């Protein structure tokens, strides 16, 4: 369960009157930082001595001190009505469906949210197209894409400082939240359209996309490590182009973007 | 022939399963080929957690510190409404 994704859908749990408790071994002080960073509004509890995760049998056999990704939904008598322990976190929609099913309200269709994690393709090369894409996306992604669209418009209006600040704020606010792959695709699109490095931007976007998806998966084979290394190399190459053209403000914006790429991928790793 | 019979039985069970299936369909793991009914037997179990609690078990209550300063327990949050449910998520943390 990625907590940012959960936060993006949390209002739907609230609408059902369903409390959500997220527990990890992190001490309270550590969780506090994360809550502020991700803007979490559900309960984050600290199971520092692992007593609770042990009592639920969700100790991670590989790293004893950490829990597996596990979700339990219990009824009023604490009887478990849904459970999932998996390498990949269930998305909020699955939990909401389980709740609705138990309560006899399935399917609820309260918010259409069938986003499956596929990177969004941007059909045309203008700001309006981005907004149009945003309009067609489910709620959680719409906000991101609209904000990205605003940033692109700033770039097009040559408001370089504003765009850079907006990039930073934007990436900071969403970096750890959800749809990293899609954000990368969007970022690659910005790079391609506004900076005129089509090939590099595309390669980087695709490679990073892949890398992120792999990182979020469970395996860590040498092949996957290679892909990650390739992505790093692509990133370095693109950064080289940027450094050579330091005096171009649009490239400076791209540099900020590249830094965000890095933060993004690290954040995704940390959030596992 | 044996294989064919087994396949047929499997196919029939799928048909029967889908006819009865009323619950939401999801993949039990990212490596699963097809989504299945989340109410089916064994859904959401993991080979890494053989001792994990399952459907129908009573979840142990707890009292854990939170960032708000108020400790949280399962009892403290539900119980009023017969349809009341609560979600408990274990995430890895430690980063």
List keywords for this structure.
A: 272 residues; mainly alpha; two-stranded antiparallel sheet; 11 helices; 4 strands; 60% helix; globular; disordered C terminus; B: 95 residues; alpha+beta; 1 helix; elongated
Describe this structure in words.
The complex is a heterodimer of chains A (272) and B (95). Chain A is mostly helical and 272 residues long. Helix content of chain A is 60%, strand content 7%. Chain A has helices at 3-15, 28-38, 51-55, 92-102, 127-136, 139-156, 160-174, 180-195, 198-216, 222-244, 249-270, and strands spanning 20-24, 43-46, 70-74, 80-85. In chain A, strands 1-2 form a two-stranded parallel ribbon. In chain A, strands 3-4 form a two-stranded antiparallel ribbon. In chain A, helix 6 (139-156) packs parallel to helix 8 (180-195) and helix 9 (198-216) runs antiparallel to helix 10. The longest helix of chain A has 23 residues, at 222-244. Chain A is globular, with a radius of gyration of 20 Å. Chain B has 95 residues and is of the alpha+beta class. Helix content of chain B is 20%, strand content 9%. Chain B is built from one helix and three strands. Chain B starts with a helix and ends in a 5-residue tail after the last strand. Mean pLDDT of chain B is 75; it is low at 12-21.
